[in-house]
Design a protein that fits this description.
By secondary structure, the chain is an alpha/beta fold. The protein is 37% helix and 12% strand. The chain has two domains: 263 residues, Aldolase class I (TIM Barrel, Alpha-Beta Barrel), CATH 3.20.20; 60 residues.
Length: 386
């Protein structure tokens, strides 16, 4: 194959990583570039977006992960880009203004360290030879030694090793070759240590495969909470498992038009489950909720019928109504239908004058579902069905 043929295969392979598949339909998502490359819009905390070339360095893999379309038992076309090819392609796309960052991952071609060396050589060429100082997200291969991980943290803007499952027992259902504590948690610990020691500013993220190992939402959320608390994770992501042996889900075709339809046991329930986990993630990171306040069902899973914040509100009627003109930021964040942006608008507006009516809320963009949980003065606003 020539270089372009290899890249077409490797970038196309990235379509199977569908974290954040619950994006809004008017957002760009992953889109085909002019040459068939996969472009991935990543958001900065301040709302800015950077468009990344998202690709594998190789889709060869010696691992046996049951959920992965590239495990060693699958019959598919395999290829690898060497560091010079990968770096050259990225710089070409960068100079033509098609991308402004790189998201680089890989299958495990031979060993974890050899694979990491190939990826690190690529990033070193981009950083040192081509003088690129922009965004690079580098995947860390489970089982790589600490020296390779340290170099990744020094070179990249963001690094990640996928935790995949919430415990050793669940990971064992997905792979007999990966060791949860040594290969995955060991890498997460090393990344956190190096980040703290070097002060490079490199961020760490991770990702779960949701629904592949019969884990509960409670188990995922408990592990997520520990990851944020102990390792300063920037983000935890959740990727709905798409079982190729199950019936086709036609609903998912609307998300990415040229990706083969996703598959699910209950149509798009698995994607709604992913969405609920992201909602909980925001409650933990942005809304001041603790793990113990997340409302799980008896089976340990989140409700698919109603979002977790609304369920918490129904279970805590003593907290409401909230005095709109007196409540602090933390209290306002507990109101269903009001997020951090809405709270900011409310706090800014009431500094100028009291918020007196439903019309004032409408002007601030506060959805009607929130109105039944607040009072302006002593008068309770009419409650609306959520």
């Amino acid at each position: 194959m020539d270089t372009e043929q290899k890249l077409n295969i490797l970038t196309d392979s990235s379509k199977y990583d569908l974290a954040c598949a619950c994006k809004m339909r008017d957002e760009p998502g992953r889109v085909r570039g002019d040459w068939g490359r996969w472009i991935y819009p990543a958001a900065w905390p301040d709302g800015r977006k950077v468009f990344l070339l998202k690709t594998l360095q190789s889709n060869h893999c010696v691992n046996d992960c049951s959920y992965c379309p590239f495990n060693h038992g699958r019959d598919l076309e395999r290829t690898t880009l060497n560091p010079e090819e990968m770096a050259g392609i990225f710089i070409q796309l960068l100079n033509s203004q098609r991308v402004n960052g790189l998201f680089l991952s890989s299958g495990v071609c031979d060993s974890a360290n050899a694979t990491m060396r190939r990826m690190l050589d690529t990033v070193e060429l981009i950083r040192y030879k081509h003088k690129f100082k922009g965004f690079i997200h580098l995947k860390v291969i489970p089982g790589a030694d600490s020296a390779a991980i340290e170099q990744a943290v020094r070179l990249a803007t963001r690094v990640s090793v996928n935790i995949e499952a919430p415990s050793e027992g669940h990971l064992r259902k997905l792979s007999k070759k990966k060791d949860f504590h040594q290969d995955i948690m060991g890498a997460i610990v090393t990344i956190d240590r190096v980040r703290r020691e070097t002060g490079t500013g490199c961020k760490q993220t991770t990702q779960f495969v949701v629904g592949a190992a019969a884990e509960t939402d409670r188990e995922i959320v408990s592990t997520t909470d520990r990851l944020y608390d102990k390792f300063g994770m920037e983000r935890v992501y959740y990727s709905a498992y798409q079982n190729p042996e199950l019936p086709v889900n036609p609903c998912q075709q609307t998300l990415f038009d040229d990706i083969p339809p996703a598959r699910s046991t209950r149509f798009d329930d698995i994607f709604l489950r992913e969405h609920r986990l992201y909602q909980v993630d925001f409650l933990l990171r942005k809304y001041g909720f603790s793990r113990g306040e997340i409302p799980f069902q008896e089976d340990g899973n989140l409700s698919l019928k109603l979002d977790p914040k609304s369920i918490w509100a129904q279970q805590h009627p003593e907290f409401f109504p909230v005095a709109l003109n007196k409540a602090d930021r933390e209290e306002l964040l507990r109101v269903p239908g009001i997020g951090p942006i809405g709270v900011k608008k409310i706090l800014e507006a009431r500094r100028l004058s009291p918020i007196r009516s439903e019309g004032d809320l409408r002007k601030l963009g506060i959805r009607r579902g929130a109105w039944g949980y607040v009072v302006f003065g002593q008068q309770l606003v009419k409650s609306y069905k959520l």
